[in-house]
Design goal:
Elements lengths: L1 E7 L6 E4 L2 E4 L3 H9 L7 E7 L11 H13 L6 E5 L5 H11 E2 L4 E5 L12 H12 L6 E6 L2 E4 L4 E2 L8 E2 L16 E2 L7 E5 L7 H8 L4 E6 L9 H12 L3 E6 L12 H9 L2 E2 L5 H12 L5 H9 L20
Helix pairs in contact: 3-8, 5-6
Protein backbone atom coordinates (compact mmCIF):
# COMPACT_ATOMS: atom_id res chain seq x y z
CA UNK A 1 0.00 0.00 0.00
CA UNK A 2 1.50 3.33 -1.11
CA UNK A 3 1.22 6.20 1.32
CA UNK A 4 1.11 9.86 0.20
CA UNK A 5 1.05 12.89 2.49
CA UNK A 6 -0.93 15.75 0.94
CA UNK A 7 -0.12 19.25 2.20
CA UNK A 8 -2.85 21.64 1.09
CA UNK A 9 -1.56 25.20 1.44
CA UNK A 10 -4.50 26.72 -0.44
CA UNK A 11 -5.00 28.25 -3.87
CA UNK A 12 -7.63 28.47 -6.58
CA UNK A 13 -7.93 24.70 -7.00
CA UNK A 14 -9.70 24.28 -3.63
CA UNK A 15 -11.84 27.42 -3.65
CA UNK A 16 -15.63 27.41 -3.61
CA UNK A 17 -17.87 29.87 -5.41
CA UNK A 18 -19.69 32.26 -3.06
CA UNK A 19 -21.67 35.46 -3.47
CA UNK A 20 -18.39 37.34 -2.86
CA UNK A 21 -16.41 35.30 -5.41
CA UNK A 22 -14.08 32.32 -5.04
CA UNK A 23 -13.15 31.70 -1.41
CA UNK A 24 -10.85 29.08 0.19
CA UNK A 25 -12.75 26.46 2.16
CA UNK A 26 -11.09 24.02 4.54
CA UNK A 27 -12.01 20.40 3.84
CA UNK A 28 -13.63 21.09 0.48
CA UNK A 29 -10.76 19.88 -1.72
CA UNK A 30 -10.03 16.85 0.46
CA UNK A 31 -13.63 15.70 0.20
CA UNK A 32 -13.54 16.10 -3.58
CA UNK A 33 -10.29 14.12 -3.90
CA UNK A 34 -11.47 11.29 -1.67
CA UNK A 35 -14.77 10.96 -3.54
CA UNK A 36 -13.68 11.53 -7.14
CA UNK A 37 -9.96 10.86 -7.56
CA UNK A 38 -8.73 8.45 -4.90
CA UNK A 39 -11.06 5.61 -6.05
CA UNK A 40 -9.15 5.58 -9.38
CA UNK A 41 -6.05 4.21 -7.66
CA UNK A 42 -5.72 0.81 -6.02
CA UNK A 43 -3.37 0.22 -3.09
CA UNK A 44 -3.08 3.94 -2.33
CA UNK A 45 -3.81 5.78 0.89
CA UNK A 46 -3.50 9.50 1.48
CA UNK A 47 -3.08 11.48 4.67
CA UNK A 48 -4.42 14.99 4.25
CA UNK A 49 -3.24 18.13 6.02
CA UNK A 50 -4.89 21.53 5.49
CA UNK A 51 -2.84 24.56 6.45
CA UNK A 52 -4.73 26.74 8.91
CA UNK A 53 -5.53 29.20 7.57
CA UNK A 54 -5.32 28.27 3.91
CA UNK A 55 -2.97 30.67 2.14
CA UNK A 56 -3.53 32.77 -0.94
CA UNK A 57 -0.16 32.12 -2.57
CA UNK A 58 0.50 35.83 -3.04
CA UNK A 59 0.81 35.91 0.77
CA UNK A 60 3.38 33.09 1.01
CA UNK A 61 6.43 33.79 3.17
CA UNK A 62 9.81 32.27 3.98
CA UNK A 63 8.27 31.00 7.23
CA UNK A 64 5.65 29.14 5.18
CA UNK A 65 8.41 27.58 3.04
CA UNK A 66 10.15 26.41 6.19
CA UNK A 67 6.87 25.03 7.57
CA UNK A 68 6.31 23.01 4.40
CA UNK A 69 9.89 21.76 4.42
CA UNK A 70 9.66 20.89 8.10
CA UNK A 71 6.47 18.86 7.57
CA UNK A 72 8.17 16.81 4.86
CA UNK A 73 11.39 16.35 6.85
CA UNK A 74 9.49 15.20 9.95
CA UNK A 75 7.56 12.57 7.95
CA UNK A 76 10.17 11.55 5.38
CA UNK A 77 10.27 7.94 6.67
CA UNK A 78 6.52 7.50 6.99
CA UNK A 79 5.37 8.26 3.44
CA UNK A 80 6.34 7.14 -0.05
CA UNK A 81 5.75 10.57 -1.57
CA UNK A 82 4.52 14.08 -0.79
CA UNK A 83 1.97 16.12 -2.74
CA UNK A 84 1.77 19.88 -2.15
CA UNK A 85 -1.34 21.76 -3.30
CA UNK A 86 -0.43 25.39 -3.90
CA UNK A 87 -1.75 28.58 -5.46
CA UNK A 88 -0.16 29.33 -8.82
CA UNK A 89 1.07 32.89 -8.23
CA UNK A 90 4.11 31.87 -6.19
CA UNK A 91 4.14 28.13 -6.85
CA UNK A 92 7.45 28.39 -8.74
CA UNK A 93 9.12 30.17 -5.81
CA UNK A 94 8.02 27.46 -3.38
CA UNK A 95 9.09 24.66 -5.72
CA UNK A 96 12.48 26.32 -6.26
CA UNK A 97 12.99 26.75 -2.54
CA UNK A 98 12.14 23.11 -1.80
CA UNK A 99 14.22 21.80 -4.69
CA UNK A 100 17.25 23.69 -3.42
CA UNK A 101 16.69 23.32 0.33
CA UNK A 102 16.43 19.52 0.21
CA UNK A 103 19.66 17.56 -0.24
CA UNK A 104 19.57 13.89 -1.28
CA UNK A 105 15.79 13.81 -1.19
CA UNK A 106 14.98 10.09 -1.43
CA UNK A 107 11.33 10.44 -2.44
CA UNK A 108 9.14 12.47 -4.82
CA UNK A 109 7.80 15.85 -3.72
CA UNK A 110 5.22 17.03 -6.26
CA UNK A 111 3.66 20.50 -6.36
CA UNK A 112 0.48 21.31 -8.24
CA UNK A 113 -2.52 23.61 -8.33
CA UNK A 114 -4.87 24.86 -11.00
CA UNK A 115 -5.99 27.97 -12.83
CA UNK A 116 -9.66 27.11 -12.23
CA UNK A 117 -11.42 25.88 -9.12
CA UNK A 118 -12.04 22.15 -8.93
CA UNK A 119 -15.79 22.77 -9.11
CA UNK A 120 -15.68 25.05 -12.17
CA UNK A 121 -16.58 23.76 -15.61
CA UNK A 122 -13.53 22.58 -17.57
CA UNK A 123 -11.34 22.88 -14.48
CA UNK A 124 -7.71 21.87 -14.96
CA UNK A 125 -7.62 20.77 -11.31
CA UNK A 126 -8.65 17.10 -11.69
CA UNK A 127 -6.12 16.46 -14.45
CA UNK A 128 -3.33 18.14 -12.52
CA UNK A 129 -4.12 16.11 -9.40
CA UNK A 130 -4.20 12.81 -11.33
CA UNK A 131 -0.88 13.58 -13.04
CA UNK A 132 0.63 14.55 -9.68
CA UNK A 133 -0.48 11.31 -8.02
CA UNK A 134 0.97 9.25 -10.89
CA UNK A 135 4.27 11.12 -10.50
CA UNK A 136 4.21 10.42 -6.77
CA UNK A 137 3.80 6.72 -7.52
CA UNK A 138 6.79 6.62 -9.89
CA UNK A 139 9.79 5.57 -7.81
CA UNK A 140 12.44 6.99 -10.17
CA UNK A 141 11.11 10.51 -9.57
CA UNK A 142 13.25 11.49 -6.61
CA UNK A 143 13.35 15.22 -6.01
CA UNK A 144 10.94 18.13 -6.38
CA UNK A 145 8.62 18.39 -9.40
CA UNK A 146 5.86 20.63 -10.68
CA UNK A 147 2.92 18.92 -12.42
CA UNK A 148 0.80 21.25 -14.50
CA UNK A 149 -1.23 20.77 -17.70
CA UNK A 150 0.36 17.38 -18.43
CA UNK A 151 3.85 18.84 -18.03
CA UNK A 152 6.36 17.45 -15.58
CA UNK A 153 8.90 20.14 -14.71
CA UNK A 154 11.88 20.22 -12.34
CA UNK A 155 10.90 22.23 -9.29
CA UNK A 156 14.11 24.25 -9.36
CA UNK A 157 13.77 25.29 -12.99
CA UNK A 158 10.24 26.51 -13.61
CA UNK A 159 8.40 29.82 -13.98
CA UNK A 160 4.79 30.90 -14.29
CA UNK A 161 4.45 32.36 -17.78
CA UNK A 162 0.69 32.93 -18.13
CA UNK A 163 -1.81 34.44 -15.70
CA UNK A 164 -4.94 32.90 -17.23
CA UNK A 165 -4.17 29.99 -19.59
CA UNK A 166 -4.13 26.50 -18.10
CA UNK A 167 -0.71 25.92 -19.71
CA UNK A 168 0.79 28.35 -17.23
CA UNK A 169 4.24 26.95 -16.39
CA UNK A 170 7.45 26.45 -18.35
CA UNK A 171 11.05 25.61 -17.71
CA UNK A 172 13.38 28.38 -18.94
CA UNK A 173 15.30 26.04 -21.27
CA UNK A 174 13.51 22.76 -21.93
CA UNK A 175 11.22 20.14 -20.46
CA UNK A 176 13.98 17.52 -20.34
CA UNK A 177 14.43 16.60 -16.70
CA UNK A 178 17.65 14.99 -15.47
CA UNK A 179 17.07 12.40 -12.76
CA UNK A 180 18.60 13.16 -9.38
CA UNK A 181 20.69 10.54 -7.63
CA UNK A 182 20.74 10.08 -3.87
CA UNK A 183 24.34 9.71 -2.77
CA UNK A 184 24.32 10.89 0.82
CA UNK A 185 22.27 11.65 3.89
CA UNK A 186 18.97 13.47 3.48
CA UNK A 187 19.21 17.05 4.77
CA UNK A 188 17.16 20.22 4.70
CA UNK A 189 18.42 23.79 4.82
CA UNK A 190 16.42 26.27 6.91
CA UNK A 191 15.98 29.73 5.32
CA UNK A 192 15.72 33.19 6.83
CA UNK A 193 14.29 36.28 5.16
CA UNK A 194 16.91 38.26 3.20
CA UNK A 195 16.98 41.68 1.57
CA UNK A 196 17.52 41.26 -2.18
CA UNK A 197 17.12 44.00 -4.79
CA UNK A 198 16.22 43.64 -8.49
CA UNK A 199 17.13 46.19 -11.16
CA UNK A 200 15.80 45.88 -14.72
CA UNK A 201 17.54 47.57 -17.64
CA UNK A 202 15.56 49.31 -20.37
CA UNK A 203 16.72 51.68 -23.11
CA UNK A 204 17.49 55.06 -21.56
CA UNK A 205 17.04 53.90 -17.97
CA UNK A 206 18.34 55.98 -15.08
CA UNK A 207 20.84 54.47 -12.64
CA UNK A 208 19.69 56.45 -9.61
CA UNK A 209 17.75 53.47 -8.29
CA UNK A 210 20.72 51.16 -8.80
CA UNK A 211 22.95 53.68 -7.00
CA UNK A 212 20.51 53.63 -4.08
CA UNK A 213 20.57 49.81 -4.08
CA UNK A 214 24.36 49.89 -3.94
CA UNK A 215 24.28 51.73 -0.62
CA UNK A 216 21.20 50.34 1.12
CA UNK A 217 21.03 47.41 3.56
CA UNK A 218 20.35 44.66 0.99
CA UNK A 219 22.80 41.79 0.62
CA UNK A 220 22.44 41.13 -3.11
CA UNK A 221 21.38 42.84 -6.34
CA UNK A 222 19.97 40.97 -9.33
CA UNK A 223 20.38 42.91 -12.57
CA UNK A 224 18.05 41.85 -15.39
CA UNK A 225 20.07 42.39 -18.54
CA UNK A 226 19.40 42.14 -22.27
CA UNK A 227 19.80 38.97 -24.34
CA UNK A 228 22.71 36.82 -23.21
CA UNK A 229 23.72 39.21 -20.44
CA UNK A 230 24.35 42.53 -22.18
CA UNK A 231 24.01 45.99 -20.64
CA UNK A 232 24.77 49.61 -21.56
CA UNK A 233 28.27 50.97 -21.02
CA UNK A 234 27.85 53.77 -18.52
CA UNK A 235 30.09 55.38 -15.94
CA UNK A 236 27.08 55.66 -13.59
CA UNK A 237 26.43 51.94 -13.97
CA UNK A 238 30.09 51.11 -13.39
CA UNK A 239 30.27 53.27 -10.28
CA UNK A 240 27.07 51.78 -8.82
CA UNK A 241 28.21 48.18 -9.30
CA UNK A 242 31.69 48.90 -7.95
CA UNK A 243 30.17 50.53 -4.88
CA UNK A 244 27.77 47.62 -4.36
CA UNK A 245 30.61 45.10 -4.40
CA UNK A 246 32.69 47.30 -2.10
CA UNK A 247 29.70 47.24 0.27
CA UNK A 248 29.93 43.42 0.34
CA UNK A 249 26.94 42.85 -1.93
CA UNK A 250 26.68 40.05 -4.46
CA UNK A 251 25.63 41.24 -7.95
CA UNK A 252 23.98 38.64 -10.20
CA UNK A 253 23.42 39.04 -13.95
CA UNK A 254 20.31 37.33 -15.30
CA UNK A 255 18.73 37.71 -18.73
CA UNK A 256 15.29 39.23 -19.23
CA UNK A 257 14.63 36.42 -21.73
CA UNK A 258 12.89 33.30 -20.42
CA UNK A 259 14.86 30.98 -22.69
CA UNK A 260 18.42 32.22 -22.59
CA UNK A 261 21.83 31.66 -21.06
CA UNK A 262 23.90 34.48 -19.64
CA UNK A 263 27.33 34.43 -21.26
CA UNK A 264 29.36 37.51 -20.42
CA UNK A 265 32.18 36.37 -22.74
CA UNK A 266 30.03 36.39 -25.89
CA UNK A 267 29.61 40.13 -26.50
CA UNK A 268 31.67 43.17 -25.61
CA UNK A 269 28.42 44.65 -24.26
CA UNK A 270 28.67 42.22 -21.31
CA UNK A 271 32.43 42.10 -20.79
CA UNK A 272 32.43 45.21 -18.61
CA UNK A 273 30.00 43.53 -16.20
CA UNK A 274 32.21 40.46 -15.88
CA UNK A 275 35.29 42.62 -15.29
CA UNK A 276 33.46 44.42 -12.48
CA UNK A 277 32.85 41.11 -10.70
CA UNK A 278 29.23 40.52 -11.64
CA UNK A 279 28.25 36.83 -11.43
CA UNK A 280 26.43 34.97 -14.19
CA UNK A 281 23.06 33.37 -13.46
CA UNK A 282 23.55 31.06 -16.48
CA UNK A 283 20.10 29.60 -17.26
CA UNK A 284 18.62 29.95 -13.79
CA UNK A 285 15.08 31.24 -13.43
CA UNK A 286 14.40 34.32 -11.35
CA UNK A 287 12.65 32.10 -8.80
CA UNK A 288 15.71 29.86 -8.48
CA UNK A 289 18.09 32.82 -8.25
CA UNK A 290 16.10 34.40 -5.42
CA UNK A 291 15.53 31.22 -3.42
CA UNK A 292 19.14 30.08 -3.82
CA UNK A 293 20.41 33.47 -2.66
CA UNK A 294 18.05 33.38 0.31
CA UNK A 295 19.34 29.96 1.32
CA UNK A 296 23.02 30.81 0.88
CA UNK A 297 22.71 34.15 2.66
CA UNK A 298 20.98 32.39 5.54
CA UNK A 299 24.29 30.65 6.26
CA UNK A 300 27.08 33.03 5.25
CA UNK A 301 27.91 36.61 4.28
CA UNK A 302 31.39 35.80 2.95
CA UNK A 303 31.46 36.93 -0.69
CA UNK A 304 33.82 34.23 -1.91
CA UNK A 305 31.71 31.48 -0.35
CA UNK A 306 28.49 32.99 -1.73
CA UNK A 307 29.96 33.21 -5.25
CA UNK A 308 31.24 29.65 -5.14
CA UNK A 309 27.95 28.23 -3.85
CA UNK A 310 25.80 30.25 -6.24
CA UNK A 311 27.48 28.92 -9.39
CA UNK A 312 27.72 25.35 -8.06
CA UNK A 313 24.65 23.37 -9.22
CA UNK A 314 22.85 22.08 -6.14
CA UNK A 315 20.06 20.33 -8.06
CA UNK A 316 18.63 21.06 -11.53
CA UNK A 317 18.65 24.86 -11.38
CA UNK A 318 21.51 24.95 -13.92
CA UNK A 319 20.73 22.17 -16.43
CA UNK A 320 23.46 20.18 -18.17
CA UNK A 321 25.91 20.80 -15.31
CA UNK A 322 27.21 18.16 -12.86
CA UNK A 323 25.18 18.29 -9.65
CA UNK A 324 26.87 18.44 -6.26
CA UNK A 325 24.41 18.30 -3.36
CA UNK A 326 27.08 18.62 -0.65
CA UNK A 327 26.34 21.30 1.94
CA UNK A 328 29.79 21.33 3.55
CA UNK A 329 30.68 24.82 2.35
CA UNK A 330 27.70 26.55 3.96
CA UNK A 331 27.28 24.67 7.23
Amino acid sequence: MKQILVLNTGGTIGMQATSKGLTPETGFLEQYVRMNILPLYHDLEITWFDFDPLIDSSQISVDDWNNIGNKIENHIEEFDAFLIVHGTDTLAFTSSYLGLAFKNLPKPVVITGSMRSIQEENSDGPGNLRHSIMTCLTEKHKGVFVCFNNRLLPGEHVSKVDASDIDAFRGPVSDNIPLLTVEGKFQRLEAREQDIDIFTFFPGCSYQTLAFMADNSSKAIIIRSFGSGNAPSSLELKNAIERAIQNNKIVINMSQCLGSQVDMHRYAAAEHLRELGVISAYTMSLEAIITKLILILSFTEKQEVIKKEFIRPWAREIPNQPINQSTNLIQ
